[in-house]
Amino acid sequence: MTATASTTPGGIGQSGFAELAGLMTRMAGAEKHVPAAHSTTDALWVLYDRVLRVTPATADAPDRDRFLLSKGHGPMAYYAVLAAKGFFPRDWLDGFGGFDSPLGHHPDRTLVPGAEIASGSLGHGLPLGVGTALGLRARDLTEPAVWVLVGDAELDEGSNHEAIDFAGASGLDSLHVVVIDNASASWGTARSQADRFAAAGWSVAEVDGRDHEALYAGFTRPHPGRPHAVFAHVEPKSA
User: Can you give the residue range of the structural domain that contains 153?
Assistant: First the structure.
C-alpha cells in the first residue's frame, strides 16, 4: 500500500505549523515529558496536514486511516495538532493535565476526540497497530492505512520485536511505523534499529525529522506487499 495525500480540510502547511508553538505554550503544569513531545511535532504535523485520510467529520468512518500514538507519555504536540485540525476546541489545551480536563498526561481514547488508543505504556502501540491492520484486512477494508508513532527507546521493549517480525512475515502493507529517533535507546543505534526492520521484511526510509519535505517523501514512499518504517532523526534528547 502507498500512503496517499490527505483529504483533511485546511491543509495549511507552514503557516499552520507555525501556530503549533503557541498552542503548545497553552499547556502548562507538571508535564515532565516536554522533550518527548517536541521531538514529534514535525512528524505529527506532516502526517495530519498532508498524509492521513481522517478528519473530525470522518473520525468514526470505517474507511478512515488510523493513527496510533504509542509514544503517549509525551502527548502535548499530539493534542496541539488535533486542536489545530479541529478535533476538539482549542481552549481545552488550557486545562491540560487538570483534574477535570479530558487531556491527560497520557491520551485516553474515550475522552480525546480523534485518539484511536489510550497510550503511554511503552511497547504497546506497535502490537496494537499490527492487530488493527489484521482486523482491517479481515474485514476486506483495503484502503485504510494504519500509522503508529513510536520512540527509538520504545524499541527496547521486546513486544515490539514480535510485532516487527509478524508484520513483515504477514506482508501487512497497510501498516506504517514512524520511529522518532532522539538517541534515547539503551540497546540499539538508529542504524541497527533500521536494519532490524529491514531484516524482518519491512520497507525502510531514514529522514531528517525536522524537514517537512523529507518527512512527506518518506511517508509516501511506495512499499507494495511490505509494511513501511520511517526513521525520523531529530536532535538528541540531551541536547
Answer: 35-75+106-233
Structure confidence by residue, pLDDT tens digits, 195-208: 999 999 999 999 99
Convert the pLDDT of each residue in 225-239 to its tens digit: 999 999 999 988 764
Q: Is 193 helix (H, G, I), strand (E, B) or coil?
A: helix
Burial-class residue 172 by CB neighbours within 10 Å (0-12, 13-18, 19+).
buried
Residue pointed to by grid coordinates 520511529: 179
Please list the residues that pair with 179 across neighbouring strands.
150, 231
**Cβ within 8 Å of residue 15, ≥6 positions away:** none
| CATH code of 133's domain | 3.40.50.970
**Residue 230, CA distances (Å) to 6, 26, 107, 143 in order:** 18, 30, 23, 20
What is the number of domains present in the chain? 1
Q: Is the pTM of this model over 0.85?
A: yes
Across 101-114, b (16+ Cβ under 10 Å) vs e yields ebbbbebbeeebbb
CB 198 within 8 A of CB 165: no
**With the C-alpha atoms ordered 224, 39, 213, 12, is the resulting torsion angle positive or negative?**
positive
Contact between 69 and 107 under an 8 Å Cβ cutoff? The reply is: yes
Is 49 within a domain? yes
